[in-house]
Predict the 3D structure of the following.
Amino acid sequence: MKTALVTGGCGFIGSNLVDSLKEMEYKVVVIDDLSAGKKEYCRNDVEYIFEDFKKVLLKDLDFKIDAIFHLAAEARIQPSFDDPLYTCANNSMGTAVVCEYARRNRCKVIYSGSSSFYGGVYLNPYAFSKWQGEEVCKMYSEVYGVKTGVVALVLLVLHASAVMASFIGIST
């Protein structure tokens, strides 16, 4: 059985991704600090780690991960103006932590991108940080050979999981 790790798996999109991965018979582990997610989205047949994904992934887990679906992010534009350092640390540097974990442990990464920067990378800290996250994925792919994919979830809300799983080649 393949194992998928979902960061931000207690949010609306993340929980739907978890449901679809379970339907496809994956073992699923979720890391979510519940800063935006909800415990009511949790399932009994999934392992949950309620901590900051960056802290958890700085060390190796005790089990093999086949793919990381990285959805955890400061996902709102307005708060990014109030705390740009947190937004960049979470969205940009957090993605680097995910990619570094994937490099060390030879697993794939699918990154939840954003369409917010298509109007301009420098419109707000959120758009900039999500663009940087995509660039981090590209760099880890080019330099280290980490298999990464970026999906903007704007159009994929309920069926994102099947599309993402197929995209990175972990479908059954």
